[in-house]
Amino acid sequence: MKTITTEELIKHKILPYNIYSEYGELIFEAGEILTPGKLLQLKQMSIIYRDDNSSLDIIDEAANTDVNEEIEITSTDNEESGKSELDLIFEEYAKIAQEKERVVENFDMNPNQTLKSNTVVDEVNIMNYKGPINKKSKIDPRNQIKLKAIYHETITGMSKRPYAETANLFLNIRDKILQDIIFRNRDVGYSSQLKLIGEYQKCHALNVAIMAGFIAQKMNYTDTAISDVVLSGLMHDIGKTRIDPDIAYKQALTNQEHQMFQLHTSIGYRMLKEDLEMPENIAIVALEHHENNDGTGYPMNKSGEQISSMSQIIHICNYYDNLCFNRTNYLVKSSKDALRRLLELGTKWFIPDALYTFIHMFSYNDTTNFEDLIL
């Protein structure tokens, strides 16, 4: 990639190349209208990069023609207003941007659902978000950043906003996952291609939701059921927000601390049912996602078919992602190591259908070291 300045960008009406932050995060894509707002965002960044490809310096004239047709500025306009041509162009760009730049559309998988996702999550300012991206992921780098930033904003701001608004934020994250990931990527062969990397607190629930959505799709769930699986994955650990963070995210727990940690399941269930008013099939996953097939899990020692099908899926994805973040006693370096551990636990812990769907969905030869995914 090559460095570029905002002064160099001003001459373009439409971006002829992708723009990246100093951390390699995709900020704006080639083909986007370069609005004053975007220039202002870029000016606030210390370093920005563009694609390192000289052929991209040739602007698509046809694309620019569309904009030129919409912006008609004459020398008379300049004289009468006392503004420079550049100022007038920026003003017109701003108007066009308001027409053309749309927020993520609500993706309502179940039109009969009582809860509607109508909170605009893309308004969250992600430009100053600092964090690594997975360079080998099937998920667009900008979406990786957006999802982590929006989820973090949702979780950390729960105590400051009405419960209904928090519920809508979760619904919007679900919609974004469905729209931009689940239904756009049919050829995923490696679990590492779906993994978000960075802080565990910002990535874990998202990873669980994404992988669970792919499992549900592979198991031929209906679109509505896939939607519910993704939402339950996003919220399965919500009870941790009411537990001492020194315990909720600590890796080596004493017996007493572990007993306190286990409370996050029942706390999460009550939060989803009573506070966020989620349906029972979503809330029950928060309660059951640590229940094992052989009855050795918690909090109620359920087994087999006593555990809801969505909880069975989330249980596998939750444990798998915990393995990948090395938050268990079994240390792994790659997806292959984590898959091997799932097979070792086998049907003692996991329901056969969900387990083998997960195992066969991803290549067992995914030996890429997690550290090699980081950009």
Provide a compact summary of the structure:
The protein has helices spanning 6-9, 36-43, 61-70, 75-81, 85-100, 141-156, 163-182, 200-218, 223-235, 245-248, 255-275, 280-288, 309-324, 335-349, 352-361, and strands spanning 2-3, 19-21, 26-28, 48-50.
Describe the 3D structure.
This protein has 375 residues and is mostly helical. It has 2 domains: 2-100, no CATH class; 121-373, Hypothetical protein af1432. It contains 15 helices and 4 strands. It has helices at residues 6-9, 36-43, 61-70, 75-81, 85-100, 141-156, 163-182, 200-218, 223-235, 245-248, 255-275, 280-288, 309-324, 335-349, 352-361, and strands at residues 2-3, 19-21, 26-28, 48-50. The protein has a 4-stranded antiparallel β-sheet, with no helix packed on it. Residues 54-79 and 96-123 have low confidence and may be disordered.
